[in-house]
Write a structure and sequence with these properties.
With 394 residues, this protein is of the alpha/beta class. The chain has 9 helices and 22 strands. The strands form 7 sheets. A 5-stranded parallel β-sheet has the order 5-2-1-9-19, with helices on one face. Strands 13-12-11-17 form a 4-stranded parallel β-sheet. It binds flavin-adenine dinucleotide.
Length: 394
């Protein structure tokens, strides 16, 4: 009987894991029944959302229909919201009442943006963490006449921890292109001392690039209490306040809705899902795999798409090895590289990755290279990712 493999979500995690399983199943003539269950009809490439906000990309550059993925890799597509996972019954329940059984489950639901955690944040903050958010930020930037742009990071880690540092310079350059003056301030919850202790190489290089660009200031170690959108004031827990003309924020992370209060939540920090390194198999359920980004902090990997890519392959290979009975042939790599666009130049951040006791990883980040060409590599990779999911005629 065909093995029923169900993928929850339509992002990078699902695409990479599904593709690996579909291609290998064809190669090894395995009988598989593949299903994607996702709430949104589009697959997005979120790392491209800042380009939309800055007017350098259009919505169709950053998305492709999930249907294209399903058709290409021979999967059924259920466009519906997952409301519950019942691992003891090997069952997924959806908002429209579908009950989907599985032999293997991939939880690829990403992370939830908990804007409500701080009063006023949702109303006050612009962001490019969704396509809709990026389009609103684009409008606000177009109307911006100059002044203080605050990039606020209220919690750490958050999805793509390098993004706020990337966007600072791009905002300054955007304002200069339009002939307006912007003072761009990064207000970050992590104290400078801690950033230097843990990420010295990165902090020093990024700061140097920002100094060269100019008009960028760091205010580190500030804990957010609330934001008042009427007076455009940020209130911090230490009693201090700060005014802004335009506020851009990184969202506080939370587990996706269907996982709330379940045993998939990481007890040590309930904002994240728990997974294991290097197979990304659930600690409790052998038939459940969790290579999505909202689980990366639980295994000490960066909360970003690059580790998701390798994690999805490692998880898919583990399922294949379960089915074929041979050891998985693609392990999680010894180092992974995250590509950052700082506006004037690009930066490769390399993470050496080792297995540590207890089913987690140990990572050591450092700067691999800084060069303007890296911006082009990043852009080509992003464009290629989405273009590859579109029919040739589009
Ligand atoms: C501004 C920005 C910049 C970034 N830059 C980088 C970068 O430079 N490098 C990098 O490596 N990463 C970057 N990232 C992070 C990267 O985009 C994510 O880590 C990656 O997209 C995570 O993929 P995923 O499949 O795990 O989650 P997602 O892509 O979020 O997919 C989750 C899927 O689950 C679906 N879903 C959620 N809840 C439900 C539900 N209840 N029912 C059904 N479906 C549901 C969603 O619709 C979605 O299809 C960036 C992200 C952002 C926002």
């Amino acid at each position: 009987m065909a093995k029923r493999i169900v993928f929850l979500g339509g992002g990078a995690c699902t695409l990479v894991a599904l593709r690996r399983i579909a291609e290998e199943a064809r190669h090894f003539k395995l009988d598989v029944d593949l299903t994607i269950v996702t709430a949104d009809e589009y697959h997005y490439f979120p790392a491209f959302f800042p380009d939309v906000a800055l007017g350098e990309a259009e919505p169709d550059d950053v998305r492709a229909p999930v249907r294209n993925i399903a058709e290409r890799y021979g999967a059924k597509l259920i466009l519906d919201k997952v409301t519950e996972i019942k691992p003891d019954e090997r069952l997924v329940v959806t908002a429209k009442g579908e009950r989907i059984g599985y032999d293997y489950l991939f939880i690829c639901l990403g992370t939830r943006y908990a804007w409500e955690r701080y009063p006023g944040l949702r109303e006050a903050a612009l962001h490019n963490y969704t396509l809709d958010g990026a389009l609103k930020l684009r409008e606000a930037l177009a109307e911006f006449k100059g002044g203080d742009i605050v990039v606020l990071v209220p919690e750490f880690p958050h999805r793509c921890p390098g993004y706020p540092f990337e966007v600072l310079g791009r905002l300054v350059l955007y304002a200069r292109r339009r002939g307006i003056k912007a003072n761009v301030k990064l207000v970050h919850v992590v104290p400078m001392q801690m950033a230097l202790e843990h990420l010295y190489d990165l902090a020093v290089t990024w700061h140097r690039i920002h100094q060269e660009i100019g008009d960028i200031e760091y205010i580190m170690g500030k804990k957010l209490e609330r934001v008042d959108p009427n007076t455009k004031t940020i209130h911090f827990q230490d009693g201090e306040t700060m005014k802004y003309d335009l506020l851009i924020a990184a969202p506080p992370p939370d587990v996706p809705e269907p996982l709330k209060g379940t045993e998939f939540v990481w007890k040590q920090d309930p904002r994240f899902i728990e997974t294991t390194f290097p197979t990304f198999r659930s600690r409790k359920y052998d038939d459940v795999f969790i290579p999505t980004d909202g689980a990366m902090p639980s295994v000490n990997l960066p909360f970003a798409g690059v580790p998701v890519h390798y994690a999805a392959v490692a998880a898919a290979d583990t399922v294949l090895s379960d089915m074929i009975g041979v050891k998985a042939n693609i392990a999680f790599p010894d180092n992974i590289t995250i590509v950052l666009d700082f506006g004037t130049t690009g930066v490769l951040v390399v993470f050496d990755v080792k297995q540590a006791p207890g089913g987690v990883a140990q990572t050591k980040p450092y700067i691999g290279l800084t060069h303007p060409w890296i911006k082009l590599i990043k852009y080509s990779f992003y464009k290629g990712w989405i273009d590859a999911l579109k029919p040739v005629s589009e």
